[in-house]
C-alpha cells in the first residue's frame, strides 16, 4: 500500500464536530514534541500537512486528515483518516486543562467508532514516564488495537536500536505489541508504519 494523496479535513474537540466519514481512522498519540506531526508529514510525503512546531503544547485539538492509498496491481484507491491527537506532558498546563485533555481523549476513544488503531509515539531515548504509562493504560482500556512507535532513532547509534526497543517493551510491559523504530530524518520505519495501518484497515 502506498499513500498517494492527503488533505486536512478539520479540527474538533467534541463528538458533534468529528468529521463525518465512511472510512476507518488511525490515530497518533504521544507527548508534545515526540514527533507526531512530523511522522504524519513523513509517511504522507508532505512537508507541511500536519503543523509541526518546536513549541510544545500548542496543538490542543483533534486534527483529522483524509488519506488516499493505492495497492500494487490495482487501479482502485483506498481511503482512511488520520487523527493527530493533542500532545501531553507539557509542564505548564493547569489541572483544569489536563482534565479537559483527558476527557477529550477518552471521549474520542469511546465515541469514534471509525477508530481502528492507535499508534503511541515515544522518544527512543527516553525512559518510560508516568504520562506515557497512563496513556498506554488508556489504550489497553479502549480495547482498540495499538502499536508503539519509537521516534527520533537517528539520535542514537543504529547498533543499539534493538536494545532500546527491548527496553521499551520491558518498561511498558508490552506483549504482542509491535514497537516500530522510526526516524523522519533518516526515513526509517515508514514502510513498517504503513504496513501496520494496512493490516488494520484493508
Ligand atoms: N532528530 C529528529 N527530530 C525529529 C524527528 N521527528 C521530529 N523531530 C523534531 O522534534 C520536534 C517536534 O516535532 P513535532 O512533529 O512537532 O512533534 P509533535 O508535538 O509530537 O507533533 C521538531 O523540532 C522536529 O523537527 C526525528 O525523526 N528525528
Ligand atoms: Mg504536533
What attributes characterize this protein structure?
202 residues, alpha/beta, Rossmann fold, 7-stranded mixed sheet, globular, binds guanosine-5'-diphosphate, binds magnesium ion
Give, in order, the helices and strands.
Answer: EEHEEHEHEHEH
Radius of gyration: 16 Å
DSSP summary, beta strand count = 7
What structural category characterises the helix and strand content? alpha/beta
Distance between termini? 9 Å
The CATH topology? Rossmann fold
Bound molecules: guanosine-5'-diphosphate, magnesium ion
**Strand content of the residues, in percent?**
25-35%
Would you identify the CATH architecture?
Answer: 3-Layer(aba) Sandwich
Descriptive overview:
The radius of gyration is 16 Å and the shape is globular. The protein has a seven-stranded mixed β-sheet, with helices on both faces. Helix 4 links the parallel strand 6 (146-151) and strand 7. It is α/β, with parallel strands linked by helices and 202 residues long. 35% of the residues are buried. It has helices at 36-44, 95-111, 130-142, 161-171, 190-201, and strands spanning 2-12, 25-30, 62-70, 77-84, 115-123, 146-151, 179-181. The protein has one domain (2-201): P-loop containing nucleotide triphosphate hydrolases (Rossmann fold, 3-Layer(aba) Sandwich), CATH 3.40.50. The chain has five helices and seven strands, in the order ββαββαβαβαβα. Helix content is 31%, strand content 26%. Bound molecules: guanosine-5'-diphosphate and magnesium ion. Magnesium ion binds at residues 36-37, 52, 59.
Topology overview:
Blueprint: E1 2-12, E2 25-30, H1 36-44, E3 62-70, E4 77-84, H2 95-111, E5 115-123, H3 130-142, E6 146-151, H4 161-171, E7 179-181, H5 190-201
Parallel strand pairs: 2-4, 2-5, 5-6, 6-7
Antiparallel strand pairs: 1-3, 3-4
Bound molecules: guanosine-5'-diphosphate and magnesium ion.
Guanosine-5'-diphosphate (GDP) binds at residues 30, 32-38, 52-54, 87, 151-152, 154-155, 183-185.
Amino acid at each position: 500500500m502506498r499513500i498517494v494523496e492527503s488533505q486536512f479535513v478539520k479540527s474538533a474537540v467534541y463528538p458533534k464536530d468529528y468529521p463525518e466519514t465512511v472510512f476507518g481512522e488511525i490515530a497518533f498519540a504521544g507527548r508534545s514534541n515526540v514527533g507526531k506531526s512530523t511522522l504524519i508529514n513523513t509517511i504522507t510525503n508532505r512537508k507541511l500537512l500536519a503543523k509541526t512546531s518546536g513549541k510544545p503544547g500548542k496543538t490542543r485539538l483533534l486534527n483529522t486528515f483524509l488519506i488516499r492509498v493505492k495497492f500494487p496491481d490495482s487501479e482502485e484507491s483506498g481511503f482512511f483518516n488520520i487523527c493527530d491527537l493533542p500532545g501531553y506532558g507539557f509542564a505548564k498546563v493547569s489541572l483544569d486543562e489536563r482534565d479537559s485533555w483527558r476527557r477529550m481523549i477518552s471521549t474520542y476513544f469511546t465515541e469514534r467508532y471509525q477508530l481502528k488503531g492507535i499508534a503511541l509515539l515515544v522518544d527512543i531515548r527516553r525512559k518510560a514516564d508516568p504520562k506515557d504509562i497512563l496513556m498506554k493504560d488508556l489504550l489497553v482500556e479502549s480495547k482498540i488495537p495499538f502499536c508503539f512507535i519509537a521516534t527520533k532513532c537517528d539520535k542514537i547509534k543504529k547498533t543499539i536500536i534493538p536494545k532500546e526497543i527491548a527496553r521499551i517493551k520491558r518498561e511498558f510491559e508490552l506483549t504482542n505489541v509491535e514497537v516500530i523504530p522510526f526516524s523522519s530524518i533518516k526515513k526509517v520505519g515508514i514502510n513498517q508504519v504503513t504496513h501496520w495501518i494496512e493490516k488494520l484497515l484493508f
